[in-house]
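Note to self: the last two entries modelled the partners one at a time, which told us nothing about the interface. This time every component goes in together.
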Amino acid sequence: MSQNKRAELIRNALPLFYRNGFTATGMDLVAKETGVSKTSIYKHFRTKEELILAVLRLRDENFRNWLYRRMEDLADTPKGQLLAMFDALGEWFREPGYQGCMFVKAAAEFQQASDPINQQAYQHKELLLVHFTALCRAAECADPEAMARQMLILKEGAIVLAAMSHSDAPAAEAKAMAERLLA
Amino acid sequence: MSQNKRAELIRNALPLFYRNGFTATGMDLVAKETGVSKTSIYKHFRTKEELILAVLRLRDENFRNWLYRRMEDLADTPKGQLLAMFDALGEWFREPGYQGCMFVKAAAEFQQASDPINQQAYQHKELLLVHFTALCRAAECADPEAMARQMLILKEGAIVLAAMSHSDAPAAEAKAMAERLLA
DNA sequence: CGAGAGGTGTACCGATCTGTTCACGTTTTT
DNA sequence: AAAAACGTGAACAGATCGGTACACCTCTCG
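The predicted structure of the combined assembly is written out below.
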């Protein structure tokens, strides 16, 4: 019961924070839009920061699961999967509510390195890097770590520019670069 | 007189917004830290939004001037300048107060496409793209427009990851990619 | 001198923020 | 059926937000 309400709260708060921003979204709005009273919210989370951290944990899980699965569905070789990532990103960019990377925005709003939100946001990027490194190693790249970091740069650049330009073109442009680098 | 105070206000407000964020920086703090009374601020700018737009205009001018000049100082061929951009970015990343791209953060905080701040933030990226395109054309790239957009993706990816990882390594990694793409 | 422009500091307005309190229902368990 | 657990709505506290009002100071210039 309690866990259900808690999970429902986190799940419904996610799009709120994603679309309105963290600071700009008040707890009264969270209560109203999630259907969970403010009293209950503060029974599950001591502060707004704890709720945001929980939301980011869910987002990390959802996003990485979605991306990895999509990469596997679109290609079966390691190199093919790395390239397919940019096709998956393109699909994401074309979604109506696309607003950029939630972790980049979290790090932008809570930019002190000592902030737990900032740290958790970067952790998401580190987890992506681990996965990319494994794929690069399986693809027998000369320097898997370096190639993985480069793929991450391409991914982040495409995400930021797609958000700012309201276009999915950066996905294809990043993919073109990845193709030449992985060749 | 008036213009001096106004310029001084914008100049001193810039690092405040850059380090604290736009929403998180209150007008009382702006008045206190810039040395310009709130009464005077609101004589020059009708709203906080207008002040932010003025700050972003100054930042655009300062940053583009600095980057273009640094690229010219470090190399004399068009291709060399494009590569030198990543060395210049590395210098920026190593500066003590580095906090990422102010325009990306502005677009993240004011993410509605109809928001004037969002529009002005993207305009900065468009101006960079114009410059890159001219350099790519001078470097006799096969497709100057596409190559310029790719260089912009590399630049934005490096900026975001340098900010999140508190490291200057993305500059060298992006440069390595640019070298292979421009070869 | 005297007027006006440009500036300051402070107090204030109404709204909104995070977080708490309290009295009250509803459901589950014993 | 009694009791504990879980939930609600609404009011509230204290702080802060963007923005305004007002009295005052200090120059410059005629």
